[in-house]
Amino acid sequence: MGELDSNGKTADAVYGQKETHRKVMSQNFTNCHTKIGHVNAHATLNDDVVFQVMGLLFNDNCALWRFMRMFVLALESSGSNKVYVHNDIFRYQDEVFGGFVTEEVDEPEER
Predict the structure, then answer these.
(1) In terms of residue numbers, what domain contains 77?
(2) Where are the annotated coiled coils located (predicted)?
């Protein structure tokens, strides 16, 4: 199951650095910045650290999207105290719950 674009049609997935770069550059971003709202960090069982970052992305000084990003900073196995980003996940929060419809449920009548 794929993501939906703003028209409700299935969006094309992109893979790899070149396709991702091409997709980002096609979005016509100008004067972009990020406002971080929350950062959570927790140690994992093998001394790595998992982070969750939530905030807003702005384009041309207008708030566009709420986002959530999760990633793990993992220690390199060389013992050099260097870390690398592992399992980097980025989601627009509006897409997570897009199309979610709540319906009012009638209370059952007592007999």
Answers:
(1) 31-96
(2) none
Q: Whole-model pTM? A: 0.61
Q: Name the token pair of 58.
A: 């702005």
Distance between CA atoms of residues 22 and 59, nearest Å: 18
The partner residues of 65 in beta bridges, in order of sequence, read 57
Query: Is residue 104 exposed (0-12), middle (13-18) or buried (19+ Cβ within 10 Å)?
Result: exposed
Tokens 């939906």, residue located: 4
β-sheet with 62-75: strand ranges across: 33-43, 49-59, 62-75, 83-92
Q: For residue 6, give every residue at least 6 positions away whose Cβ sits within 8 Å of its Cβ, in sequence order, or none.
A: none
Dump pLDDT digits (tens) for 32-78: 889 999 999 999 998 899 999 999 988 887 777 889 999 999 988 88
- HSE value, Cβ hemisphere, 13 Å, CA-based, for 3: 13
Residue 95 DSSP symbol: H
CATH of the domain at 66: 3.10.450.50
**Residue 8 domain-assigned?**
no
Q: Is residue 77 part of a domain?
A: yes
Bridge partners of 68? Answer: 54, 91
